[in-house]
Sequence to fold (550 residues):
Amino acid sequence: MINKMEAKHLDFYYKDTQALFNINLPVEKNAVTALIGPSGCGKSTFLRTLNRMNDVIEKTKVVGEVLMDNKNIYDPDVDPVELRKKVGMVFQQPNPFPISIFDNIAYGPRIHGIKNKQKLQELVESSLKSAALWDEVKDRLHDSALGLSGGQQQRLVIARVLAVEPEMILMDEPASALDPISTSKLEELVRELKNNYTIVIVTHNMQQAARISDYTSFFLNGKLIEYDQTNIIFTAPREKQTEDYITGRFG
Amino acid sequence: MNKKFVKYYEKGIKYLLALVAGTSILILFLIFIFLFKEGIGIFAKVGILNFIFGMEWLPASEPPIFGAMPMIVGSLVVTVGAGIIAIPFGIGIAMFLAEVAPRNLREILKAIIELLAGIPSVVYGFIGLIVLSPIIKDLFNLSSGLNAFTASLVLGIMALPTVVSISEDALNAVPDSYREASLALGATKWETTIRIILPSARSGLLAASMLGLGRAIGETMAVLMVAGNATIIPHSVFDPVRTITADIAAEMGETVQGGTHYQALFGLGVILFSMTFVINLITDLVFAKTSNIQRGAQL
Ligand SMILES: Nc1ncnc2c1ncn2[C@@H]1O[C@H](COP(=O)(O)OP(=O)(O)O)[C@@H](O)[C@H]1O
Ligand SMILES: [Mg+2]
Fold:
């Protein structure tokens, strides 16, 4: 197994409150790693340490390492802006910009210096195709992205991430605002995408974790309780707390 | 509360609000009627076009001449000048406050801006007269520092708090999810602000600009003190000008109620009212258009 990323002895603080405690977690390349756990246990916080989105929040502190391709992303010579090009992120609420579908997808490539119209067009098309949205929007690329349904918006956001040509995609409960049909489309898409990308997905839906992930990690109160192959976590967890959680005895 | 009571309560509130809104419209309407009634005489005497486009304003000559053009141009020049100063600086400061400044610095700066808004206009005029105008006189080698340029500068500073606070509200109203989305795509903070935040806030920024202009065009005391007050059409920004407001304030005391001069000043009032009305109308139209796009798209 090749690790695309690995958290080592990672602590995280919001002001004086510690939110993550000594997290050690590998993220395998071209696989889907799911983060599960009750809300408030630090899943989002952990996910956002992987692309340094927590840097944006005032007065936060990281201790420990997150290695990406064996390089600590918190080293002083790493530019978080460059890092985020390589590690894309999809949020809980679909957040398209209030501009056209085309401009949403082209936004990333444009800020990264691609001006050629032909190239932008190709990128937009291939990204939308990879995100399984092309057929639904190809006739209205220049309409506002806000006119799309929630499920479409979330796939648009994924296409927008893909257009930047990242190596990894982080998803924070991407289906929590979606209806069942949109959710199953999204899950299918995630399974598809892992062939080319390394994916870390937060979900509070355990069936979803079981369906789409290769590895699952269970968080509780800012600690990583257990990490293993998904089928093992769901059939033969080692820890009592994990078992209680997946059998729904608390949560 | 029982259901019936809630229903009447809701209805009551609705009618009360309608009454308040209706009253303010009525008052506005009455003001216009009053202005027009007092001013109509001058339009009848010299002709509406002669009044508006007349190049000379000589109320004391025999016979008096009432051409409002110098004042219209004066008001426009100092308002545009004030806008050129207040709009970019105001939006820039708002950008700094909303997007860059750490929280404690932001609170301090906002307090200062609010203080700026609370200074009486006569104080601005005084500072313009005593401090600013000699500097400008020396700097540009002029015979007098009381001119359209100085007036624009003073008005620009006076309009700044309006532009800053409304712009800042507009920027803060942009959802954080846009900022996060942009940053997560590898955009810098600056790229995010320029390419996502500013365009998303554009209707609010436009409103801020227009209200800033409205503040400038209506200002009287400060501009009376620093603009030089010559009733001539200026040929450069360093010429003295007289604005509509300044003229009304300066001359109202010497008129006889109902006399021709009195009517002429009300005629100026009608013109000023119409100018602000047009500014607001344009804003509303642009505003409605942009917000319609957003609203329509959300459905
Ligand atoms: N911006 C923040 N500032 C301070 N505390 C935060 C912030 N975001 C999250 N937290 C706290 O950190 C803990 C973990 O939150 P989070 O990572 O969002 O949990 P999860 O995603 O598992 O629901 C919670 O106690 C939460 O209150
Ligand atoms: Mg969360």
The CA atoms of residues 79 and 217 of chain B lie 5 Å apart. Residues 3-46 of chain B form the longest helix (44 residues). Residues 65-298 of chain B form a domain with the MetI-like fold fold (CATH 1.10.3720.10).
